[in-house]
Design a protein that fits this description.
Layout lengths: L17 H4 L2 H38 L1 H25 L4 H21 L1 H6 L5 H29 L3 H4 L8 H9 L3
Helix pairs in contact: 2-3, 2-4, 3-4, 4-6
Protein name: acyl-CoA oxidase
Family: Belongs to the acyl-CoA oxidase family.
GO biological process, one term: lipid homeostasis
């Protein structure tokens, strides 16, 4: 059995401190746990459907589940590489900015798939709320340095023409209205 499946700990499921939620180990373990659960589930489904539909039919029947598994695996690899890049960043200021983005990516993905974690008590309700609250806070933090990222990544103007990137009066009124 995969080691990530046996890590549903009732104590850590409730930890909600910012240090814990921003810990790369927690984030990567959560991503890998999700991938392990999906792998176990898709294997069981394929085995079940192969008996009646054959291999090809079972594969087609489970295709959405297989695509979700593939996406989960890719996200785990991306997060692992992102964490590695943050840790190897030589400039402290850049490292802090990248850590902020990395944490936002990880927590946002965990939050978007919170049902998976909640259904198996990997994340308790209080921790789910803390993840959502911290994700919103980190989004606000990233907003403050978004211009620096645009410059650093040399994003072309056509990408910046998205309504959220425009500095029009309507956008300013909207952001004031929603509290930014």
């Amino acid at each position: 059995m995969n080691t990530y499946l046996s890590q549903s700990n009732p104590v850590t499921a409730r930890w909600e401190s910012e240090d814990h939620l921003r810990d790369p180990k927690f984030q990567l373990d959560a991503f890998r746990y999700r991938t392990s659960r999906l792998l176990q589930s898709v294997a069981a489904r394929l085995q079940k459907h192969t008996k009646t539909l054959g291999s090809f039919g079972a594969w087609n029947r489970c295709l959405n589940h297989l695509l979700t598994l593939a996406e989960s695996h890719i996200e785990s690899v991306i997060l692992a590489k992102f964490i590695e890049a943050v840790q190897n960043c030589p400039d402290a200021s850049s490292q802090a900015a990248l850590k902020l983005l990395c944490d936002l990516y990880a927590l946002d993905r965990i939050w978007k798939d919170i049902g998976t974690y909640r259904n198996v008590d990997y994340v308790a309700p209080n921790k789910a709320k803390a993840i959502n609250k911290l994700t919103q806070y980190l989004s606000f933090q990233v907003r403050n340095i978004a211009g620096e990222f645009i410059d650093a990544f040399d994003l072309p103007p056509y990408i910046l023409r998205a309504p959220i990137a425009m500095q029009s009066e309507a956008y300013s009124q909207y952001t004031q209205l929603v509290g930014f």
